[in-house]
Write a structure and sequence with these properties.
Layout (H helix, E strand, L loop, with lengths): L1 H8 L13 E14 L8 E13 L2 E14 L12 E16 L2 E15 L6 E18 L16 E18 L9 E16 L3
Antiparallel strand pairs: 1-2, 1-8, 2-3, 3-4, 4-5, 5-6, 6-7, 7-8
Length: 204
């Protein structure tokens, strides 16, 4: 709950200074993925969680990330006796940001990643490419708020940049049997996603 309160507190930061210098940040995001293509026979929807470490330089940012799409449903007739397929992913995003106001940015991003499957098509893996867009609200909050959430609404102690964001995008994956990119046996899938997240750091 303290994270939610921290992010809500950003709406009260209109009078604070929003840094635009280069800086490092970390983010966490959760949401849902909708699966299309051949992969949808093994999983049709998934719960997504993503952790990222990023660096912003001017209006650009690069993020290295780890993510999981945990299968929650399957429409197709295959592998009825197993759980829906889940994907584990690692990737790199490049973002371009446009400041809308002192505390609000919009951005476009491109992604390159690798995914490995479990359940259903266990052992399949391959590369992915994606695009996305988002909007983020940012400002400074007291560090002490991470110890006790009411302190987010005070002006006590040192402050750290924090952000709340909403992101949508799509990623295309071609997963090869045994993860061998030369193997002709492959499963294609497109995952469209909507996530919400938060982050802290020296800049976003």
């Amino acid at each position: 709950m303290h994270r939610i309160v921290a992010l809500a507190a950003l709406a009260l930061c209109a009078s604070s200074t929003s840094a635009r210098a280069d800086g490092v940040y970390v983010t966490e995001a959760i949401g849902g993925s909708d699966v299309k293509g051949e992969l949808s026979q093994y999983v049709s929807s998934a719960f997504r969680i993503r952790l990222a470490l990023g660096y912003r330089f001017g209006r650009w940012a690069a993020e290295g990330w780890l993510a999981g799409d945990l299968g929650v449903d399957r429409d197709g007739p295959r592998v009825r006796d197993t759980l829906p397929t889940s994907l584990g992913e690692v990737g790199l995003d490049l973002k371009h940001l446009w400041p809308v106001s002192k505390h609000l940015d919009i951005y476009l991003r491109g992604s390159a990643s690798h995914a490995g499957a479990s359940y259903g098509i266990d052992g399949y893996g391959g590369r992915g490419l994606g695009v996305g867009a988002g909007i983020q609200l940012e400002g400074k909050v007291p560090v002490l708020g991470f110890l006790a959430w009411p302190l987010f609404f005070t002006n006590w102690g040192p402050k750290v940049n924090a952000a709340l964001f909403v992101d949508t995008g799509a990623d295309f994956y071609r997963l090869h049997e045994h993860g061998d990119l030369g193997n002709p046996r492959a499963v294609d899938g497109t995952l469209t996603r909507l996530t919400v997240g938060w982050g802290i750091g020296s800049d976003f």
